[in-house]
Amino acid sequence: MAESGPECEDTVGWENNRGKTCRDYADWCDGGAFRQGSEWAAGEVFNHPEQHCCACGKGASALPPPRPTSDSPTFSSRANAMCNGADSEVRTTTVEGCEAHCERVRCACFHFRRSVCSFALVLATPSLQPTSRGYVAHLRVGAQPPPQLAARHTGAGCASSPQRQGSPPAFYLYEEPALEWGERLSRCFEAARGMPPWALAVNDSAHQRDGAPPIQLAHGLWLYQALRQHPARTRIPERAALYVVPAYGSLSEATGGCDGQTHLNRMEAAASSLRTSPWFKAAPRRHLLLASTLPEDRNALGALGELAATSGAVALCADSRSCARGFQRRVVIPPLPLPPLATLAVQLQTARQMCGAAAARRRPTSLFFRGLHAKSHEAQELRARLWTLRQLPGAAVKFTRGGSASLEPDTRRWLVAQGWSGGSAVPFNAYAYARAALRSDFCVVVRGDGQNAGRMLVDAVAAGCVPLVIGDKTVLPFRKRQGGPLPYADFTVGVDELEYMRYPAETVRKALEEAAPRLPQLRAALLAARERLLLGYGDAPLRYNMSLARGADTLLRAVGQLICPRNPASLSSCIGEQA
For residues 460 and 493, is the Cβ–Cβ distance under 8 A? Predict the structure, then answer.
């Protein structure tokens, strides 16, 4: 642990109100200061680690700069505005407490309401969003958007980053009250659960929850916001090539009663509204909706799903095995990444690491995997071999709790022979997983019970960790599409499945050794691919709290390719032929 001076000693018995000690804070601090992008872990909310931990600045080496005088204000206020990209928050009783916290962590903008201080460590573009909800935004005087924001959208500074392709097809987004339930469902869910649906996965009260959290519950909310602000959206239905139906099946079923309607009532009302649409009557096969389901769902889309499926609409599914029944036309889209990896501050931090001279620097961990055992025998055998990768230098390979009780006897015997035991599994922790991925050069991507890469791929991409894809059968989203494919060979490392099954450690070691000299090129391509894979960045799928990526572009091109293989970017000729 780095110290701020030769006489510095960590405060004995100190914790950060969440069970973390100064030893844990070595992940966030170094040399007497917080690491870039980790300033959120300071201050009163976390029991002032900067005053107790040498690595974070105990001993005055990391004291905040003095408050300016009244003649030189730190923040300028703007009424009826919110900070764009405010992806961090703390609880405090006054706006003065919010400003004091922002002084300590050097945030660029904050807004305060109802004892919640929401802030952004870096300015987005635009920096403020107008609102009629009574917020007042406080913008740091002289703050400017960092150049990395522009690089994040253009690939500047990364020589191998491809240029943006042609515009995706124009689309119309339905906003009829019977169809657009996102905001109302979020409100009802929060009233019932005490937290919004996008915060369920990483809420502090469930900090050590075992098992993967249901982060896909908020998928429809993220997709809606990405499409609502998209430049290809048209408000004139006659000009649209595609028609997007907002769908929140899993969220609606999890919420239950809301504004006097049950889940199935909402789906019936949505189906009735869509059935009367002249655009749906004329072109049902050019309609698309999110049809992903969760294991606990019983009938996520109800009557709406039945109508859309029988009419030939396109289903967007995050997993080919978890898609509403009846749809014959499907596009597999990426799932949401783990929320701690999707913040704007993390994305900017990793962008700086993936371009220029920094791209050649190695991270502390060479290879990272943390996940469950699978249920199918084939997937169990594939994942069991990961246990031998622990012998590779710098590797961090762990299984999380769950699934081991159903291991096939031969798989269990093989693992035991390699030194594994059921007690070797660790609890799943969203923040620990995110920190480990951010500290790793390569992240294992291996299929589970289905053929899809699942969240492992998007987590690796969001963390700036080069995906190590094991097996040729793994389905990667948008891989085979011709209307805007992701160049996986440019930013992933492949491992032959047959060789891996025979000699797992040796095969992976060879792949890593061959990929190491190309790490700067892999990271530069990974940065460009991240923009085309993710929907956006932020803590919440809210207009004022979300910075758009280009994942919606890729999604729309993939749907266009399904409808019109010849020319997915311009569907007019196909539309005329199909009329």
Answer: no
In this structure, what DSSP letter does residue 10 have? P
pLDDT at 423: 65
Strands (E), 318-361: 329-332
CA atoms within 13 A on the CB side of 150: 6
Q: Are 264 and 253 in contact (CB under 8 A)?
A: no
Answer for the pair 85, 536: CB distance below 8 angstroms, yes or no: no
Dihedral angle sign, alpha carbons of residues 290, 292, 296, 299: positive
Tokens representing 475 are 């389905």
575 phi/psi in degrees, rounded to 5: -60, -40
C-beta separation of 302 from 272 below 8 A: no
Angle at alpha carbon of residue 68, lines to 67 and 70, rounded to 5°: 120
Nearest Cα neighbor of 187 from 258, 114, 96, 291 is: 258
Instruction: Yes or no: say if 58 and 8 are a contact pair by the CB < 8 Å rule.
Output: yes
Residue 485 CA to residue 478 CA, distance in Å, equals 6
From 238, 239, 271, select the one nearest 252 (Cα to Cα): 271
Question: How far is the CA of 421 from the CAs of 53, 215, 367, 399, 418, in angstroms?
Answer: 36, 29, 21, 11, 9
User: Cα dist. 457→403, 426, 474, 488 in Å?
Assistant: 21, 21, 11, 11
Contact (CB, 8 A) for 500 and 519: no
Contact 151, 133 (CB under 8 A): no
> Of 240, 245, 287, 280, whose CA–CA distance to 572 is shortest?
240
Instruction: Give the per-residue pLDDT at 1.
Output: 41
419 conformational bin, left if phi > 0, alpha if psi -120 to 50, beta if neither: left
pLDDT of residue 289: 96
- What's the one-letter identity of residue 231? P
Q: How far apart are CA 184 and CA 188, in angstroms?
A: 6
SS3 455: helix
Distance CA 123, CA 323 (A): 38
pLDDT along the chain (579 residues), means of 10: 58 82 80 66 75 79 38 75 74 81 79 80 72 82 57 42 63 94 92 79 40 71 91 92 95 94 96 96 95 89 96 91 90 89 82 83 94 85 92 92 72 86 74 90 90 89 96 81 68 95 96 95 92 86 76 90 67 52
Q: Is 66 exposed, middle or buried (0-12, 13-18, 19+ CB in 10 A)?
A: exposed
Asked if residue 375 lies in contact with residue 385, where contact means CB atoms within 8 angstroms, the answer is no
Q: Would you mind telling me the total number of residues written for the chain in this entry?
A: 579
DSSP letter at 30 equals E
Three-class SS state of 165: coil
Closest CA to 286 of 184, 169, 117, 179: 169
CA pair distance 557, 562, nearest whole angstrom: 9
User: In sequence order, what are the residues at sequence separation of 6 or more whose Cβ sits closer than 8 angstroms to the Cβ of residue 124?
Assistant: 83, 84, 85, 145, 149, 344, 547
Neighbours of 130 (CB within 10 A): 12
